Amino acid sequence: MKFGAPRNRGASRFAIAIAMLASLPVSRAAQPVTFAHDIAPLMYQYCAACHHPGEAGPFSLLSYQDVKKRAAQIATVTHSRYMPPWLPEPGYGDFVDERRLSDAQIRLIADWVSAGAPEGPATEIPPPPAFTSGWQLGPPDLILEAKRSVSLPASGPDVFWNFIFTPPVKTTHYVRAIEIRPGQKRIVHHANLIVDRMHWAGSREIAPGAGFPGMDLANERSLFDPDDGHFLFWKPGSTPFVEPDGLAWRLDPGNDLVLNAHLQPTGKPEQVRPSVGLYFTDKPQTAFPMLVQLEHDGALNIPPGDRDFVVSDDFRLPLDVDVLAVYPHAHYLGRLLEGYATLPGGQRKWLIRIPDWNLNWQAVYHYREPLFLPAGTIISMRYHYDNSAANPRNPNHPPRRVCEGNRAADEMGHLWLQVLPRGPGDHRMTLEVALLRHRLEKYPDDFTAHLRLGAVMLARLNAANAVPMAEAAVRIEPNHPEARNLLGSALIAVGRTEEAVDQFQKALRLRPDYVNARFNLANSLIRVGKLDEAIDNFHQVLTVYPNDSLAKDRLARVLAMRGKQLAAENKLDEAVARYNELVSLAPRDASLRCDFAELLERQGKSTAARAQYDQALAIDPSNGTARTRRELVLRHTAK
Q: Whole-angstrom Cα distance, residue 58 to residue 235?
């Protein structure tokens, strides 16, 4: 038991309690309640995961002496449902690893304490559960340790700190499980791991390797990279979640992992340096879940004293899905959190209901069985907030107006669902489009939604509709280089090349090291006939990525075009310079060698020309052009 769970007063709980009492064996009813027969099994099942040596619980509850010493306290905190911490209301979602005592079990503890906490026959006490002091899944395939510790003061508000890890992998791996070792479990209340494929986190570090503060993070990702679709969540007492075959997530070379950790002062200065264990699998990802977020943070403007401020969101599913897990999230003013689905026929299915939210005990809840929702289902969230002085968790005294934000003193209202679209293949893009359109219904000037929706349309070869989306993104944030680059790409696709060149050049003025925009500019310059400028931009791309085969191929093409153009203009020295670079890029191209040799013949450089024909024949002995021209050069030289 670790302190913090709310009381649950639902009618369904009363029904469950009656059923539990009815199921108790008649022969036990007349016998005294003892630790050996009644209490030890409860402690081991519901409490010991956190309350054993080395875990986050402040004391152990593995022995009779441990439990008896705190018997009255245990009766109090279980009666109030402060312990064990379990937020969801029963009957509103069937979750694995449920740690929630029934009314009958709570009464059993109270009766035992009232009877003086008898031990019963010591020889009949069941053996306590065994807990490993090391990695729970065995040695990880890769262990990552934070580069630096973070100092936590002895007192003050909770701290949310982000540690950045860069796995030293040289090939793509698939991760079936993670295990987070926070260093000191009494300090780290919970943590989320985020896969950073765009290196956005490093730019926020206060110093190299030091990490950065922040409570709720928005993961920045490539416009063409779908959501990874996994909850990588940890809290004390939890066991690592192992992804089923086919659902492992992808880890590419150069990816960063960001550990967002909630740290709680303990009364003395502490140092926190977490580590993360990764477990790989040789079974690649074949099923593609996605995290669907319901939210309406833009509506969060809670007046002081308001006891029931409601925020809602509703989203219609465009396809059939199975819901695998749910993660509700709010800050300190959240009170009643509800998530449910309305099927096309009108039937309601509950996703989760939390009647007394407590930020300190937030968690990811995995369904015991996937919850099927057909296309057309409307998933809904209804979050109630209490900004009155009567809310014991209100951080403001007296209450003040609270709006949305990432600080703990601000508010949020999110309902995350991990869903797996039915059917073979990857259907995340369909969901993404629907979610982005839904977001624009709530926030018509949302920059990211316009940007991502434009990128999705472009990826789907729908450039005509991508252009207005990209134009809207540029209108909203004219100094955003990625928006300029996207607009340029969409304009190229609809044949507006001159305008595209302008957009790529503006993107590069905003961010000169934007290699993707420079590559796009080089390609668009070819289309408008500015070959020398295109060659210069491809050179700059290859300075950053010298082994990029596509950039090399495009450079070779434009060098050949410019070489022929210069030769036609009788600018032979400049043409030879282009061909010299060209044959270094494509040394195994026999036809190219022949073209170069003919150019050298025009300059009167017979020896050099013959050398190029020799190279062409070494590459392709059957090349008739090279053989004939070589013979002509030899005859001319002999004369």
A: 15
Segment of 2-16, 344-358, 359-373 carrying the highest mean pLDDT:
344-358
At 246-286, the pLDDT tens digits run 999 999 999 999 999 888 888 889 888 999 999 999 999 89
Query: What is the residue whose two structure tokens read 């780290």?
Result: 188
Joined together, the tokens standing for residue 34 give 């003892």
In the prediction, which pLDDT does 11 show? 37
Write the CB contacts of 580 (distance below 8 Å, at least 6 apart in sequence): none
Neighbours of 14 (CB within 10 A): 11
Cβ pair 523, 551 in contact under 8 A: no
More reliable by pLDDT, 52 or 503: 503
What does the alpha-carbon distance between residue 335 and residue 357 come to, in Å, rounded to a whole number?
A: 5
Q: Let me know: does 499 contact 483? Beta carbons within 8 Å.
A: no
Tokens of 392: 């014991």
Nearest to 579 by CA among 629, 589, 534, 538: 589
Three-class secondary structure of residue 137 per DSSP: coil
Instruction: Read off φ and ψ for residue 369, nearest 5 degrees.
Output: -130, 140
DSSP letter string over 418-441? EEEESSSS--HHHHHHHHHHHHHH
- Distance, CA of 375 to CA of 319 (rounded, Å): 4
CB contact set of 427 (below 8 Å; sequence gap of 6+): 288, 319, 421
Residue 118 pLDDT: 93
Q: What is the 3-state secondary structure (H, E, C) of 98-163?
A: CCCCCHHHHHHHHHHHHCCCCCCCHHHCCCCCCCCCCCCCCCCCEEEECCCCEEECCCCCCEEEEE
How would you classify the pairing of strands 212-213 and 159-165? Answer: antiparallel
Going by pLDDT thresholds of 50, 70 and 90, the confidence category of residue 218 is low
Are the CB atoms for 250 and 426 separated by under 8 Å? Answer: no
Residue 20 and residue 170: Cα distance in Å, rounded? 55
The residues near 525 (Cβ < 8 Å, ≥ 6 apart) are 501, 531, 533, 534, 537
Give the residue carrying structure tokens 């999110």.
414
What is the distance between the alpha carbons of residues 146 and 193, in angstroms, rounded to a whole number? 13
Radius of gyration of the chain measured on its C-alpha atoms: 33
> For 545-566, what is the mean pLDDT?
91
Q: How confident is residue 630, by pLDDT bands cut at 50, 70 and 90? A: confident
Beta 142-145 vs 275-281: how paired, if at all?
antiparallel
Residue-range domains of the chain with CATH: 11-124 (no CATH), 142-281 (2.60.120), 290-444 (2.60.120.230)
- Which single residue is written with the structure tokens 């950065």? 212
Write down the pLDDT at residue 30. 57
User: Nearest to residue 503, comparing CAs of 535, 533, 471, 529?
Assistant: 471
- Give 145-202 pLDDT, tens digit per residue: 999 998 889 888 888 899 999 999 999 999 999 998 877 667 787 788 989 888 888 8
For residue 346, how far is the Cα from the chain centroid? 33
- For residue 416, report the phi and psi dihedrals to the nearest 5 degrees: -100, 135
Contacts of 565 (CB under 8 A, 6+ apart): 531
Q: How many Å apart are CA 594 and CA 611, to the nearest integer?
A: 10
- Beta pairing partners, 371: 323
CA distances from 420 to 225, 373, 462, 637 (A): 17, 10, 26, 74
User: What's the rounded Cα separation, in Å, for the pair 583 and 559?
Assistant: 10
Cα distances (angstroms) measured from residue 314 to each of 302, 331, 363, 384, 440:
20, 21, 22, 15, 13
